[in-house]
Design a protein that fits this description.
There is one protein chain. The chain contains 17 helices and 14 strands. It has 576 residues and is an alpha+beta fold. The protein has two domains: 472 residues, Butyryl-CoA Dehydrogenase, subunit A, domain 3 (Up-down Bundle); 90 residues, no CATH class. Helix 3 runs parallel beside helix 5, helix 6 runs antiparallel to helix 7 and helix 8 packs parallel to helix 10. It is globular, with a radius of gyration of 32 Å. The structure holds flavin-adenine dinucleotide. The site of flavin-adenine dinucleotide has 17 residues, from strand 3, strand 5 and helix 11.
């Protein structure tokens, strides 16, 4: 069964669930024409169905090969990648100054879901390139941007993200890769990285590696980490490719699935050290790396959505075809498609609902990130940045969990065929790995996020020095004025709490008035037994209107109201 992009579901999540339409109306997207969204998604869906989805099985069966320090991908992959970049899909949300189309990240997020759903091993490659573009654009020097950014945006070269080492997985601060100053502004890097997605391949002429390393005089832990750009082939002054840099794939992982995506062990420094260029400042690599990581985390969340959607599509098709048993209430011979069975329907509906929820959260994250850079108003940008920072780890953790759950339900619907190669579903039965890469999910949610306002409202980034938040304008004034404002805010909050309390008291008395059923027919507020024994009276009277109450007139004397004198003038008690 081939893949079809669920365009309507995607548009619903994007426009209404994630709030793209509202953000466009509010003017946060400038002159962006939202009408092109449908056209872009339909075109992406067509490409995925025609080119990427058919390569999935080929890639998985053939896998990748490492020979003579070179990784070769499965047949048809380099060609598919060329067609994909030629159609401009790598540049959807890239900066316009470097050849990108400058479309919203939210649209690229929807496209990422399509690439992941149709061919997840293929979709991983641009995901990392996009992260590399973000980091270089935000933190790189003008010279580095001029040489590398345009090629990365167009997809002519791909990017990698290199953090993990054998002893440094979740704990990035434990990394040992060394960088030494070469004296000419460049650095020599030596060390080993593991698990590097698309660390080497034959789909492009050059690969740009983004590597975390430590300088000799760097402080311990994450505060002493710097980010370096290391090209596979050095680039000459005229832009042509020069000699091979000292960074090689020394092994490839044999994974449970995604056999077509090379996950490499990368070795630097066997021939004197890889030539690298600093991105950002020395010892502040974590800041740059977080820019990459957040982008990649959202991408991994979208992988989860893609895999869930594909599992749903396959399970639905299987349930419509596979015939077993009779539908409830139907007699006679023969069998019906399993989709008629209520439990199968339930599982399918659950799969679809969970996928939609994960999709909407991911798209909402992308919209928040868009608004955080596109809105004209600084306050709106700040609020959107905080929302994006909150949602990013949720989008990753929740969506990858949903990928697992939906796939598991899909296996259940397939029965035994869920584990058989020919249904193609087995290829999707091991989505656990998606929760793994780009960092531990729950820990990521706990760690201090960039752009996350601290308790005083300062928007701090990891590794910030004093004054950095102020320089970025993400800093709130303190002092007498701020203290007064805080006091006024506290007073206003207290007023609200008090009026809330008053409101609650009033409603409590009203409730008693309703339930007071003693013969005096007074309001609960005036009825002292009701006030003294509200529970004893109200529990018995609650469901019975006062006039019809069997308790009327028969309450023990102590439970009766004592009518006031002026009431007696008009109230006549029934004579016994
Ligand atoms: C398919 C794939 C592709 C990858 N691609 C890349 C890549 O391109 N670049 C790259 O740099 N890395 C990549 N990785 C590596 C990935 O980022 C790491 O696997 C991940 O960071 C976890 O590190 P680890 O495997 O060493 O696990 P460990 O750090 O050894 O953790 C083992 C377990 O302990 C838990 N744990 C650890 N510390 C804590 C804590 N403080 N609190 C709570 N729980 C904790 C973790 O959740 C995990 O379950 C990839 C991994 C995979 C599987």
């Amino acid at each position: 069964m081939t893949y079809r992009a669920p365009i309507n579901d995607m548009l619903l999540s994007l426009n209404h669930g994630a709030g793209l339409q509202a953000a466009v109306k509010a003017g946060h997207y400038g002159d962006f024409d939202a009408d092109i969204t449908t056209a872009v998604l339909e075109e992406a869906g067509r490409f995925a169905t025609d080119v990427l989805a058919p390569l999935n099985r080929v890639g998985d069966e053939h896998g990748i090969k490492l020979e003579a320090d070179r990784v070769t991908t499965a047949p048809g992959w380099p060609d598919a990648y060329q067609r994909w970049t030629a159609a401009g899909w790598n540049a959807v949300s890239g900066p316009e100054a470097f050849g990108g189309q400058g479309l919203p990240l939210a649209i690229n997020a929807a496209c990422t879901e399509i690439w992941s759903a149709s061919n997840i091993a293929f979709g991983l490659c641009p995901l990392l390139t996009l992260s590399a573009i973000e980091a270089l654009d935000a933190h790189g020097s003008d010279q580095l941007k001029k040489i590398y950014l345009e090629k990365l945006v167009s997809g002519e070269w791909t990017g990698t993200m290199q953090l993990t080492e054998p002893q440094a997985g979740s704990d990035v601060g434990a990394l040992r890769t060394r960088a030494e100053r070469a004296g000419d502004g460049s650095y020599r890097i030596k060390g080993t990285k593991i698990f590097i997605t698309y660390g080497d391949h034959d789909m492009t002429d050059n690969i740009v590696h983004f590597v975390l390393a430590r300088l000799p005089d760097a402080p311990a832990g994450t505060k002493g980490i710097s980010l370096f750009l290391i090209p596979k082939f050095l680039v000459n002054a005229d832009g042509s490719l020069g000699s091979r840099n000292d960074i090689y794939p020394s092994g490839v992982e044999h994974k449970l699935g995604m056999h077509a995506s090379p996950t490499c062990t990368m070795t630097m420094g066997d021939k004197g050290g890889a030539i690298g260029y600093l991105i950002g400042e020395e010892n502040r690599g974590m800041l740059c790396m977080f820019t990459m990581m957040n982008q990649a985390r959202l991408g991994v969340g979208l992988e989860g959505v893609g895999i869930a959607d594909r599992a749903y599509q396959q399970a639905l098709a299987f349930a419509q075809e596979r015939r077993q048993g009779r539908a409830v209430g139907k007699d006679g011979n023969g069998s019906d498609p399993i989709i008629v069975h209520p439990d199968v329907k339930r599982m399918l509906m659950q799969m679809r609902a969970m996928t939609a929820a994960a999709r909407t959260i991911c798209y909402a994250t992308a919209v928040a990130l868009d608004v955080s850079v596109r809105a004209t108003d600084a306050n709106t940008r700040g609020l959107a940045a905080a929302r994006g920072a909150l949602l990013t780890p949720i989008a990753k953790a929740f969506s990858t969990d949903i990928g697992n759950e939906v796939t598991s339900l899909g296996v259940q619907i397939h029965g035994g065929m869920g584990f058989i190669e020919e249904t193609d579903f087995a290829r999707r039965s091991d989505p656990r790995r998606h929760g793994l890469h780009r960092g531990n999910r729950r820990r990521a949610a706990l760690s201090r996020r960039p752009h996350h306002p601290d308790l005083r409202g300062h928007q701090r980034h990891p590794g910030d020095r004093p004054g950095d938040a102020k320089a970025r304008g993400q800093w709130r004034r303190t002092g007498v004025g701020a203290a007064r404002r805080a006091l006024r805010h506290r007073q206003a909050r207290r007023d609200v709490q008090r009026s809330d309390l008053r409101h609650r008291r009033t409603t409590r008395w009203r409730a008693r008035r309703l339930t007071c059923g003693c013969s005096a027919r007074r309001s609960a507020a005036a009825c002292w037994p009701a006030r003294r024994w509200p529970r004893a009276i109200s529990a018995k009277q609650a469901a019975i209107p006062n006039a019809m109450s069997p308790w009327r007139g028969s309450l023990p004397k102590t439970f009766r109201c004592r009518p006031r004198r002026w009431r007696r003038r008009w109230w006549t008690a029934p004579k016994p």
